[in-house]
Amino acid sequence: MRPTTSLSGAPGRQAMDSSTALVIETHNLTKTYKGVQALKGLNLKVPKNSIFGFLGPNGAGKTTTIKLLLGLARPTSGEGRVFGHAIGRDSVRIRQRVGYLAQDPRYYEHMTARETLRFTAGFFFSGPAAQIEARIAETLDLVGLADKADRPLKGFSGGERQRLGIAQAQINYPDLIILDEPAASLDPQGRRDVLEVMERLRKYTTIFYSTHILDDVQRVSDTVAILNQGELVAQAPIEQLLAGSGGLIYQVKLKGDAEPVRGLVAAQPWVSTLKVDRVNGATAWHVGVTDEAAAEHDLLRLVLSDPAVSVAEFARQKYDLEEAFLKIVEGGDHGKQ
Fold it and tell me: Is the pLDDT of residue 12 over 50?
């Protein structure tokens, strides 16, 4: 029977337990195919209203994880919950609140984007046709396809097809959108367009997407999990992951005699390391900190408390995700949180 809903809200939407802010949570989730472990004791925590990047090489187990979360495959052992519902037992209830885009979406080529969304909307909505059409128009505008709404899909580019796939996943006002490699086969412009759509969706829903493209993760993700050979090797907010295992580091370039104030800074309880380099008469500090808020509030003030010192540069050290990824995957630095 087709579900009936008011288009002012989400079909099947229910309030999550107010005691938790996690949309997805797994405990030792494992999947074995013919004696081969595709997934090994996965423990994921996906915060509500985040863009969660599920990163890993091809064959790492990302698609297997998505199939388990959607109830399309059964775990060999362990458990998982989406919106607090068990992934095996309550998969129908979960899927009522989830939008999903497969890695290689297929369409009826003779249909237009508007007709495609009208067909999809028919599985979720019944009611006044004008309201359904308004929802379709709203969704096409959201993914940047309003000007191509009535063109046959056979003329669509790869990026336009992926954005239409996201529109299909979003049409039912889902609380969670799962995207499997949404930009894997696109050119740079197509990838940019898809990432921009994901950023626009951030305020409406939680986005969980798998990818092996490091630049995409660094651009849009709040939190990242790294999967390698079926095993979770890191999970952390993107800034924490990029900061490396040594914690946050601030770079300060100084002029003048900085030695007296160095001892004052090094004595702070939130300063873990202070390395000094001298280049061309200037002094460069690399200050490792354990408390970001304290460093942002006090570090520069402490340095400038000495009138003999002037600051030429002050910034938090930036890291490249590729460097962090290779260090974790190849170096065995498991940054599980």
Answer: no
